[in-house]
Amino acid sequence: MNSEADEGMSRRSFLRTGLGAAAAGAAVTGTAAAQEEGGGGGGTEVIVGPGGSNVFDPETAYVKPGGTVTWVWDSGGHNVVPESQPSGASWEGHEPIEDAGFEYSHTFETEGTYEYVCVPHASLGMEGVVEVTPNPPENEGYQSILPDSAKTIGVAAMGSLVSVLGMAYFFMRYGGDYGDYEE
Question: Which of 25, 76, 92, 121 could disulfide-pair with 54, CB 3.0 to 4.6 Å?
Answer without folding.
Answer: 121
